[in-house]
Amino acid sequence: MTSVTDFSPSETHYIGGKDDAKPPAAAGGGRDNLENTQMPSFEITVYNQSVRDKLKEGERHRDLKDEWADPHYVEISAQDEPDARRKAMAKFPAEKGFVIVAVTPA
């Protein structure tokens, strides 16, 4: 599992658990094609306000890299936009300083 500190702002990351797993290839034998349906993807724009505040004070955040002061773009598979926002909020909680700027279809 990738930790929050491993993200780089220049990369797109994929969030979620089993929802993001690629569906199994159709194996025939009467299997339903519903298994092959992928959920839509959403791009989440997120940064960390606590990191921004620390940098303004000339300090460094205790747990996060300085690059979290800049927007990160994270791709999340979800049923819909509210579901994507819920997943993003769970991964990037406001109480830890994260600000979700936007949720848009990928």
Your description of this structure?
This protein is of the alpha+beta class. Helices cover 18% and strands 25% of the residues. The chain is built from two helices and four strands. The two termini are 22 Å apart.
- The best one-word shape is elongated
Number of helices: 2
Query: How are helices and strands ordered from N to C?
Result: EEHEHE
The chain-level mean pLDDT equals: 79
What level of helicity do the residues show?
10-25%
The CATH topology turns out to be Ubiquitin-like (UB roll)
Biggest sheet strand line-up: 1-3-2-4
Could you name the ranges where pLDDT drops below 50 across 5 or more consecutive residues? 5-35
Could you say which structural class the secondary elements and strand pairing correspond to? alpha+beta
Short description:
With 106 residues, the protein is an alpha+beta fold. It has a single domain (4-21, 35-105), classed as Ubiquitin-like (UB roll). Helix content is 18%, strand content 25%.
